[in-house]
Amino acid sequence: MDYKNIREIFDKIIEIHNLEKDEELAELLQVNFNTLKSWLQRKHIPYKDREKVYNALSINQINTNQKETNFYSIPKLNISASAGGGNELIGLEEYETGEMLELSKAFFKTIPKNVKAIRVDDYSMIPMLLPDSWVIFEEVHEYQGDGLYILNFDNQLMVKLLQLDPISKILDIISVNKDYKSYSIDLKDSQIELIIQGKVLRSII
User: What is the pLDDT of residues 111-139, one digit of tens each?
Assistant: First the structure.
């Protein structure tokens, strides 16, 4: 590394990390901005700090930063949500294994919060969802408008379309595939346990 042209080195780091100003460069290198300016004025970087500059120029570091910038890491659950009869449920937190699903930020319209990924089983949502599709859902526990939801329906985990009649308070739990049964629940009188576990944001078929 040619330390006689510190400005050129710093400009290269700024370019490859998509930075805009020296203050951001100082933050990347984890040094005080005044320290950075002193390096430029003296045209010298102390030996103890040169590793930071090497790391900022390394391809591995660049790729890691780009991945962190452009992708979300979403926890995968090791249980499937049935599109048909369902699977017994003990609690979603019990099924997190640490394995992540990496998805581009361009996949989402807004920044997702508290999201998880779960695999779909069965055929009742064909053609909307196929067996072994993955759905990305935000953990919510209340109805948030018509759409696709992950449900604990009578202690069975499933993915279904929900539509609510706001006047009659009848909730339709819909299977897209007409060969499978759909359900209607009167929310005013029903004794059936229905717990919303999340609303689906995106699917990977």
Answer: 777 888 998 888 889 999 888 889 999 98
pTM of the model: 0.60
Q: Identity (one letter) of the amino acid at 1? A: M
CB atoms within 10 A of CB 24: 14
Token code pair at residue 30: 């984890």
pLDDT in tens, 143-156: 999 999 998 877 77
What is the 8-class DSSP label of residue 182?
-
∠ Cα 3 46 35 (to 5°): 100
As a whole number of angstroms, the distance between CA 84 and CA 99 comes to 26
Torsion of CA 153, 146, 126, 159, to 10 degrees: -30
- Going by C-alpha positions, the residue among 68, 171, 160, 79 that lies closest to residue 118 is 79
What's the CA gap between 109 and 85, in Å, rounded? 31
